[in-house]
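S.,

Sequence below, as promised.
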Amino acid sequence: MKLKLLVLSAFSISAISTLIPGLTPSAKAVCVLTDVGVQVAIHGKNSVANQNNKVDQQASNDCYGNSATTSGVQVYTGSGSVNQNRNVGQYVSGGSANNPTGVPMPVIKIHVNPQIDVPAYPNF
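The prediction came back faster than expected:
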């Protein structure tokens, strides 16, 4: 008898737990700003690669459920020196209504900016 109740209880809990995600609202972030910028320099052993990547990400105070993404790739191959400069500005505002949670949340800022410097090109 106890085994039947235990099995019935486990079945009931698992059946109810499949309904719970449908009853809860989906998660949303205030605002998400993403930047992906890759700089690659393959140059001569006696030369230099100056790689600069400036990213300015801003959002309004009332931004909710909005996002922006930028991307860029710079590649140099040669025996001389190189200057790679990348400047990015992102600004988002508004979005879907006001934040219904009432909980102030910071803007999520994501930077993926690898700079690859390979001084391996042979000198001629």
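The CA atoms of residues 7 and 13 lie 10 Å apart.

Coffee later?
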